[in-house]
């Protein structure tokens, strides 16, 4: 039976703004308070989805969240009508209003961790929504994320959904941004690679000194248990604390993997040789031939990697066996990174082609091509069981671009977040979107 890796890209929400909310994310902090363009952001994301679909890749879409999150503001003591809640938050606690308006759910690499049926004990595809509890503005996402994923992957015969892990620092979970799967074929048993920044309980593991390590070893282990993964199908590796302190807040900012290949920076991990040997041995037992591409610091520095998002790219396998790397425009703008990529593709190695996409609106807020997609490996039967409304087609692309043009603003500043009309615009847009994507009632305003 044929199997696929389906990329479900996050649709940028109507409140896309530069709130500078993510400490440790250099781009997010450096562009704080600038005016954003939600319409352009959404259309840039849709253009990438359409392009990959036209290249022959299976492509889906994942809906954004309701923002501002009035219910979250009510839990923090603001009362009255929805408009009054927004007005009072803007007057008394503007940073909380900005957090409640975050459109960061667009980066669906943080939505959940996904294990394909070939790896799990019960033969179903497993999803665990990420608690994202390192940042308040992201910690409020997982209830809606769970409902949206449940509406997309509803057939319990094929799909299993787990609630987010306990919302405490010891189980900080950032989802697929710190998870990669290696396999010979998407439908065959593979090795799931969990990268953590620190251990909550074992002091033998070093921790960064400047920025927080968002993913814990204990969270990764809990997800592996929930998904019924076998010990010989899992590898855990620690992210280098020094690169976290240089702005590498997730593993997908310093490494990307797909199929049998890991593309990573020389400084990405601790005990790299040991990790590579374990991946090679475990994948070898499952019929695979693990291969790695190390980018040396002498050619691309960690700073270059962070500013260009070289590794926050999509590594895709084409039908002829060659690999394609999808990178943001910022890679072409960095001389050292672009020179490295030209040499990489001309060497006749594993990665044969690089394609560049303009994702400036997302990049300025700290998310590149890899942040924008959640990968789900599915066999033909499972793909047929996915809600067809979320699978990208040419007509759906046209419908969604018209929807964005109709509902999105082309400029948004922090002061605009205090406009109660923005909430009404968002709810009107999302109510229509759930009908387009055939999701049913997934948002709080539709349920309560």
Brief synopsis:
The protein is of the alpha/beta class and 448 residues long. Helices cover 35% and strands 17% of the residues. It has a single domain, classed as Succinylarginine dihydrolase (L-arginine/glycine Amidinotransferase, Chain A, 5-stranded Propeller).
CATH topology: L-arginine/glycine Amidinotransferase, Chain A
Q: State which percent range the strand residues make up.
A: 15-25%
Biggest sheet layout: 3 strands, mixed
What is the CATH homologous superfamily assignment? Answer: Succinylarginine dihydrolase
How far apart lie the N and C ends?
42 Å
* DSSP, total strands: 15
Number of helices in the DSSP assignment: 18
Quickly name the level 1 CATH class. Answer: Alpha Beta
Whole-number mean pLDDT: 94
> Uncertain segments of ≥5 residues (pLDDT<50)?
22-31
| Reported CATH architecture | 5-stranded Propeller
As a whole number of angstroms, the C-alpha radius of gyration is 21 Å
User: What class, by secondary structure content?
Assistant: alpha/beta
Number of domain modules: 1
Strand order of the largest sheet: 2-1-15
What oligomerization state is this entry in?
Answer: single chain
The backbone outline, from C-alpha atoms, is globular
